Amino acid sequence: MNILDKIIFDKQREVILKKSIIPVSQLESSVFFGRETISLSQKLKTSSTGIIAEHKRRSPSKSVINHNFTVEEVVKGYENAGACGISVLTDGKYFGGSLDDLLLARASVNIPLLRKEFIVDEYQILEAKAFGADLILLIAAVLTREEIKSLSQFAKKLGLEVLLEVHNQEELEKSIMPTLDMIGVNNRNLKNFEVSLDFSKQLASRIPDDFVKVSESGISSIEAISELKPYGYKGFLIGENFMKTDNAGKAATEFIKSLE
């Protein structure tokens, strides 16, 4: 069983447990549930930099990245830096995140928030909406075409945008449908965690222009973004590069300034 299979196995058990504790009615009565969401895809279309900055404490491949910042410090720093949106990891076991991180982020900033999670059930999409997210991530590697269709339709009904993550042509071809807003190419192989920008380059021409193209993982330099922009990428998700510094907001500010 590879790391991704383990994460999904644990996630399915976690969702069953959460459903037994917190009813849907409680999520729907959240103060953020009726909030109008902010479109990340629109922001990326008009941005000259396209940075989606990430709040991430640790990962299976790097263990601890940074535990020294508060969520508020990080996300306010990202907003002030001019990030188009912020990705907030909410998985606890493998990434050290939580839904509380999303809630704190929503209370601190007024830019689009992505709930970065391994979504396998509509219940998690209700949670995303209740805790202040503007968009969700769906990972093609762990979902069937039918699951992608039903989960993305459910998200759209709630007013959430959908970023679909793919790793190869097969995943891309099974996933293309009108209920997606953005297609992200993960440059990290989730089975062995190796990183290569070639994933983004090879798939770029196969992503229809109806979708905003996002490149994720392994982007740590201005050169990498300059390399990917000619391929039509409008969004660039950067996590560890900012989080591993002493001041994530400052690192993001310097990075975004040198892009402008």
TrEMBL record:
Domain Indole-3-glycerol phosphate synthase stretches: 4-254
Pathway entry: Amino-acid biosynthesis; L-tryptophan biosynthesis; L-tryptophan from chorismate: step 4/5
This protein's UniProt keywords: Amino-acid biosynthesis, Aromatic amino acid biosynthesis, Decarboxylase, Lyase, Tryptophan biosynthesis
Pfam short name (any one): IGPS
SUPFAM superfamilies documented for this protein: Ribulose-phoshate binding barrel
EC number, UniProt record: 4.1.1.48
Molecular function GO terms recorded: indole-3-glycerol-phosphate synthase activity
TM region positions: none
Gene3D superfamilies: Aldolase class I
Reactions performed catalytically: 1-(2-carboxyphenylamino)-1-deoxy-D-ribulose 5-phosphate + H(+) = (1S,2R)-1-C-(indol-3-yl)glycerol 3-phosphate + CO2 + H2O
Family as reported in the entry's similarity comment: Belongs to the TrpC family.
Protein's name in the database: Indole-3-glycerol phosphate synthase
Record organism: Flavobacterium psychroterrae
